[in-house]
Write a structure and sequence with these properties.
The protein is an alpha+beta fold. The protein contains eight helices and ten strands. The chain has a ten-stranded mixed β-sheet, sandwiched between helices.
């Protein structure tokens, strides 16, 4: 949601979070016991008020250090991996049309994102100090940037049925060998119709056609429906991250 940090930087300022929530914000992507003091120093020097920090769920010492420093756990992200070299991609058996989003559909994608994430339980919505509507708008602006900014997403797919847009799926090429599904939303009245699975299959085919070797997909640990959909296609658990928030005021 913000620019990549400079090499070796313990944290980075987050202008997007600051613009959305009105407080000086920062992010720390891979916190451990060794770099936590530098993260806190960065926040002090930059007068950060709100920090989003992630650490590996396997690093219990980092979890304890974050808790001792006044951080609060907000969510857990599970990453799933699909091996394009070894795992066959199943056919898309959905009757819904999956195609690239058109330039004139950006506003529709934003509306879909608002509906899909209005009652979401990600780390923004989990923080009682953040306005719930503004938390939802984070995903709206992210979805729209995926449609308009090549740095945000490499492809955005749309699901069309009955002449209207009912879902979207953004994916990004991270490297010459790796792709990642980064954001998706399906209109509530069209859920449980196989649209999410169709997005997965078409996205995997797109990645294979470009010579990628693996695809990642992350989801909230409590989102069992997405985990099941991914597992049925051939994704396997890879790793997971905790998301913590810290308020300095």
């Amino acid at each position: 949601m913000s620019a990549e940090p400079a090499a070796g930087a313990p944290a980075e300022l987050s202008p997007l979070d600051e613009a959305r929530f009105g407080v000086k914000s920062a992010r720390a992507r891979e916190v451990n016991t060794q770099n936590l003091p530098a993260v806190l120093d960065f926040c002090a020097v930059n007068q950060v008020e709100f920090l989003v920090a992630r650490c590996s769920t396997a690093d219990i010492s980092a979890v304890h250090a974050l808790e001792s420093a006044g951080f609060h756990l907000m969510d857990t992200l599970l990453y799933l991996r699909f091996d394009l070299k070894k795992t066959p991609i199943p056919p898309n058996d959905s009757s819904v049309l999956i195609r690239p989003v058109r330039p004139d559909e950006v506003d529709q994608v934003g509306t879909l994102a608002f509906t899909a994430f209005e009652n979401f339980y990600g780390h923004y919505h989990a923080d009682p100090r953040l306005d719930p509507r503004k938390s939802t708008e984070v995903y709206v602006s992210w979805a729209q940037r995926c449609c308009t900014e090549p740095s945000a997403a490499s492809l955005v797919l749309a699901a069309e049925t009955e002449g209207k847009l009912v879902g979207f799926r953004a994916l990004r090429v991270n490297s010459p060998t790796q792709g990642e599904f980064i954001l998706a939303g399906v209109s509530p009245e069209y859920q449980r119709r196989g649209i999410y699975r169709a997005f997965i299959v078409e996205g995997l085919q797109w990645c294979r056609e470009r010579g990628l070797e693996e695809v990642l997909n992350s989801t909230h640990v409590a989102n069992v429906a997405v985990q099941r959909a991914c597992a049925r296609v051939g994704f396997e658990p890879a790793y997971s991250w905790y998301t913590f928030h810290k308020w300095f005021q």
